[in-house]
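Appendix C reproduces, verbatim, an entry submitted by the partner laboratory led by Prof. M.T., so that reviewers can inspect both the input and the predicted structure.
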Amino acid sequence: MSDPTDQPRDKADLLVRIDAAHSELESAIVGIPADQLGSLHDAEGWSVADHLAHLAAWERSMLALFSGQPRHEGLGIDRETYESGNIDAINAAVRATSAGQSADAAIADFEKTHADLMARVATMTDDDLRQSYPHFLPDEPGSGFGNDSGDPILWRLCGNTAEHFVEHCAMLLAVRPV
C-alpha cells in the first residue's frame, strides 16, 4: 500500500497538484528555444517530443481505465508487455509508438490528452476517486503496478499526472544539443 501521508486527500487537492505540476512542465518547455525542441536530448537520449508523447500515453492510459478499457490500449502497446510489469520494457514500447513525432505534434497531443483527462476528472466525485483500481477494471489482472492494492484511484491518477510531470520536468530541464 502507498504511503498516504504524501498522497492527495481529495479531488480538490489532486487538482491543485496537477495544475501546479502542469504549469512547471509548461515553463520547462517554454524555456527551450523553439528551434531546438527537436534537436535537444537528455542524458538517456530522449527528445522533448519523446517526453511529451510518453506523458500523453500515460494520461491516455488513465482515460482508458476510466472508460473501462485496458490501460495497455491507452498506452498503445501490447497486453503482454504491459502485464509484464517491467516498467523499462513498457516505457520502451511506449516510446517506440511515437518515434519520429515532431515536437510540435507531441506538444499538441499532450495538451489535448491532458485537457481530455482533466475534463473526465471534472465529472468525477470524491467518492469516484476513492474507488480502487478493480472498480474501474475488474477483469484486469494485478501486475507490477499494484492494480489490486486497494489504494484509491486518486493516488494512481496523481502518479500519472502531477508526480509524472515533476519527474519529466527535471529531465526536460537537463536536455542538451546532441
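The chain has one domain: 4-177. Additional entries are available on request from the coordinating office.
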